[in-house]
Write a structure and sequence with these properties.
5 helices, alpha+beta, single chain, 175 residues, six-stranded mixed beta sheet, elongated, 10 strands
Length: 175
C-alpha cells in the first residue's frame, strides 16, 4: 500500500453553498442539476446529497462566490426540469483542504484530519474525500483557523497553509 503524503493545508472563504430541496429521486432530475452547472461552466466542489424524505433528495453544491448569480439563475430556469421545491444559498461558509497523495486509502489520515478540527473547535458541515485531498465545509469565519489546526496536526508549520480567498494562492504571514 502506498504511503500517504501530506503536502499542505488550504482554505477558501470565497465560496457559497447552494442547496436544492425536494429534488425528486430520479436520474433525470439529478442529470438536470449537473447539466445546469455544466452549461453555465460551473464546477461545484464539494457536493453533498441526502434523502430527507422517501422519494426526495437534497443537493448542496459548493461553488465560487463569484458564480452565485450564474448558478442560481441556471437552476432557477431549470426548476421545472429538475422538480425541486426550494432553492437557497449561504455565503457564510468556507472550505478547508488537506492536500497530498494516498489520503483516502489511509483512514488514520482522515481520523487525524477530524481530530485536528475537533481540537481546534471547528465545526464541519460536510466533507469530501479523494485520494489527493480531504475537503471540509466549515463556517466562513473558522476556515483560516481550521487550516492552521491542520497544518499543526500534520507538521506543516506556518508555511504549509495557503489561502485561495478571492486571490491566487498566497502564504499566510500571521495567525
Amino acid at each position: 500500500m502506498e504511503q500517504p503524503i501530506v503536502r499542505g493545508a488550504h482554505y477558501d472563504t470565497g465560496v457559497v453553498k447552494v442547496t436544492l430541496d425536494g429534488v425528486p429521486d430520479r436520474p433525470a432530475a439529478v442529470a438536470a442539476v449537473f447539466r445546469c452547472c455544466a452549461d453555465a461552466w460551473i464546477r461545484p466542489d464539494p457536493i453533498r446529497h441526502g434523502c430527507p424524505a422517501p422519494g426526495l433528495r437534497q443537493f448542496t453544491l459548493v461553488v465560487p462566490e463569484s458564480d452565485t448569480l450564474a448558478v442560481v439563475t441556471a437552476l432557477g430556469r431549470a426548476r421545472t426540469a429538475i422538480g425541486y421545491t426550494a432553492l437557497s444559498h449561504d455565503a457564510g461558509i468556507g472550505t478547508v483542504t488537506l492536500s497530498g497523495a494516498a489520503l483516502a486509502t489511509h483512514t488514520r489520515i482522515i481520523a487525524q484530519f477530524f481530530e485536528a478540527l475537533a481540537q481546534g473547535g471547528v465545526p464541519v458541515h460536510f466533507v469530501s474525500v479523494t485520494d489527493t485531498r480531504i475537503t471540509a465545509v466549515t463556517p466562513r469565519h473558522r476556515a483560516a483557523a481550521a487550516a492552521q489546526a491542520l497544518a499543526l496536526a500534520f507538521g506543516l508549520g506556518r508555511d504549509g497553509v495557503n489561502s485561495s480567498a478571492r486571490q491566487p494562492r498566497y502564504r499566510l504571514t500571521e495567525a
